[in-house]
Write a structure and sequence with these properties.
Length: 326
């Protein structure tokens, strides 16, 4: 709608200052000719807007002009109050700032939309932390944030999974990403994208050198590359077919959700339900010991043999002398 486009132009100019007509046209997906017609309409309505042509020209508002019009619809007002996961702002030290910002937004909302926004903030809660994720190690993001916002290089002492001693890296940060309750530093090391879990950073020090990011590359671009590397990493996995007693099916689906490749085939009548899982290594099938005799591996034979070895090891442990026995 033209009215929405006019308001978008007004808010963009208020935020950005001088903006080239072709950039406004690209962002609003209209022609440059349409942008100039919209500018004429804004001017005719009393908005002090003007255009300067030429290489360094653009469209801007008269210096000092501001409008209190938010132009928010009811749905947009609700959306503002469904924000990032609980804990994300606290980790960045922005909890107080978020509360203050939302109070200001509430005051600026058109009066008819305020009740809906207020109800939304009380009725919708986003918690991105996984179930049964266990206690999380405290993460100090202060130095990482400083590097990200000051565009400076970082020297890290970082402990990789499965290693006891940390390694030292000099990296060029792009930004921080919170995924499923875990913070990651996205950075280049020697020009190649790398992902560092913030809770494995043993120490971080800002360097005086500016970050050496690849030209034209943004955080979202690097994150997409790294995300694909993780999700599409080839693995010599093993596919396992199991059967589960019906009374344990709900718990099984919750606890083995990450391994399920085929949902249980449940006819609603049988005592046993069949499902397929995938594990990265054979030894990982020992997870199924947690279900005792409520889950049975049907195939492949090597998975059954691995579980049998695990049972024998546990049996031998408990048949031996217990603590304090000689």
């Amino acid at each position: 709608m033209k009215s929405d486009r006019l308001l978008s132009i007004l808010l963009l100019l208020q935020t950005r200052g001088r903006v080239p007509a072709h950039e406004l046209a690209d962002r609003l997906e209209v022609s440059v000719r349409t942008i100039y017609r919209d500018i004429e309409a804004l001017s005719a309505s009393g908005v002090p807007v003007y255009a300067e042509r030429g290489r360094h020209g653009g469209i801007e508002l008269l210096a000092g002009f501001r409008t209190d019009v938010t132009g928010l619809t009811a749905d947009e007002s609700r959306a503002l109050f469904i924000l990032a996961a609980q804990g994300a702002h606290a980790a960045l030290g922005l909890d107080a700032a978020l509360g203050s910002a939302l109070r200001k937004v509430m005051a600026a909302l058109p009066a008819p939309h305020r009740p809906a926004a207020e109800v939304t903030s009380r009725r919708i809660l986003v918690d991105a932390t996984r179930w049964r994720s266990g206690p999380q190690q405290a993460v100090d993001l202060e130095v990482l944030q400083d590097a990200v916002f000051s565009d400076r290089r970082l020297k890290l002492r970082y402990r990789h999974s499965g290693e006891r001693e940390p390694r030292t890296y000099t990296v060029d940060p792009y930004g921080l990403v919170a995924k499923a309750g875990v913070w990651y530093l996205v950075a280049d090391r020697r020009g190649a994208p790398r992902l560092f879990r913030a809770d494995r950073v043993r120490s971080a020090r800002l360097l005086d050198d500016p970050a050496r990011r690849r030209p034209g590359v943004e955080l979202a671009d690097v994150w997409e590359v790294l995300r694909r590397q993780v999700e599409e990493r080839p693995e010599d996995g093993i596919d396992v077919t199991v059967r589960i007693r019906r009374e344990r099916l709900d718990m099984f689906q919750r606890m083995a959700a990450a391994q399920l490749t085929e949902l249980p085939d449940d006819d609603g009548e049988s005592d046993w339900v069949t499902a397929r899982l995938s594990y990265p290594v054979l030894r990982a099938v020992r997870q199924l010991l947690a279900f005792s005799d409520q889950v049975e591996i049907l195939d492949p034979p090597e998975a059954r043999a691995e579980l049998l070895r695990a049972v024998r090891s546990v049996t031998a442990l408990y048949q031996g002398a217990g603590p304090g026995e000689g």
